[in-house]
Amino acid sequence: MKPHKLLNPQTLPSKLRPIFLTNHAPSSAPFSSLTHPENPTDPPPITRRSLLKTIQSSQWHFIKHLSPNLSPSLISEALFELQKSPQLVLEFISNVDFHRLDIQTRCLAIAIVARQSSPQTALELLKQVVGSGIATIREIFNPLALSRERLSVNSSIIFDLLLRACCEMKKADEAVDCFYLMVDKGFMPKTETCNDMLSLFLKLNQTERVWVLREAEEGKGVCWVYGEFGH
To answer: Spans of the PPR repeats (predicted)?
Structure first.
C-alpha cells in the first residue's frame, strides 16, 4: 500500500485552502459610555433655607458633614432666623465647631444663647472666647454690642457676663477694660458683677484698682457693697 502524501496548503488552489478563524477583541467603541461614566453632578449649593430646615429637624450628623462648607455669612443668617430658639442655636453651634467661627458669628450666637433663663451657658461660651486669645476685650465687646442692637435686646446682661467671665478667669486687666467699655456705653454693671471685680482685685492684692474704679464711678449709680471693702 502506498503511503499518503501530505498536502501543502500553499500549493492548494485558493478555494480549497483551509480557513483559519481568529479571535479579535471586540470594539470597545459601542461601550465607551459604560467604561468611562460621566462625572456625577455636583450637589446643590447650601442655601439659608436648606440649612434652616436641617437645623430645625436636628440633623446634627449632616450639619457636622456640612460644617467645612458653611460660610460665616450663611451661619450668621441662620442664627438670626433662629434668635427665638436659643437652645436650638446652642445645639447648632455645638455641631459646627464653635471655636472655628469668626468673632462676629460667635458673639451673635452668644447674644442669642444669653436669652436662656440660665446665663451659665452663655458665660461659659464667653470664657471660651476670652481664653482663646483670638481677640481683645474691645474686639469682643463691640461685636456683642452690635449683636445686641441687631437682636433688639434691651437687657445689658451680655456685658455683665463678659465682665464676669474675665473675673472668673482672673484676668484683671481685661476686667478693667470691659468695665470702662460698659461705662463709656452707658451700661452700669450689676451689683453682683461689681462684687466679682472687687473680690478679684482683693484676691490679687490690687486694692489700688478698687479705689480708682470707685472714684471713676462715683455718682454713676454703681453700688460697691463687697463685704471686705473697708471704709
So the answer is: 155-189
Burial (CB count <10 Å: 0-12, 13-18, 19+), residue 91: middle
Could you tell me which residues come within 8 angstroms of residue 46 by beta carbon, excluding any fewer than 6 positions away? 66, 69, 70, 74
Smallest CA-to-CA distance from 91 within 64, 120, 124 is with 64
b/e map 170-209, b = 16+ CB within 10 Å: ebbebbbbbbebbbeeebbbbeebbbbbbebbeeeeeeeb
The answer to the question of residue 144 being in a domain is yes
Local structure of residue 204 (DSSP, 8 states): T
Phi first, then psi: what are they for 223, rounded to 5°?
A: -95, 125
pTM score, two decimals?
0.76
For residue 66, what are the domain limits? 51-217
In a domain, residue 11? The reply is no
Instruction: Copy the grid coordinates of residue 76.
Output: 450668621
The rounded distance, in Å, linking the Cα atoms of 70 and 55 is 13
> Could you read off the pLDDT of 79-95 as tens digits, one per residue?
999 999 999 999 999 99
User: Which one-letter DSSP state was computed for residue 219?
Assistant: T
Q: What single-letter amino acid sits at 206?
A: Q
Rounded Cα–Cα distance for residues 120 and 178 (Å): 19
Inside any domain, residue 159? yes
Q: Report pLDDT digits (tens) over 134-190.
A: 999 999 999 999 999 999 999 999 999 999 999 999 999 999 999 999 999 999 899
Q: Is the pLDDT score of 100 beyond 60? A: yes
Closest to 220 (Cα-Cα) out of 184, 172, 193, 196: 184
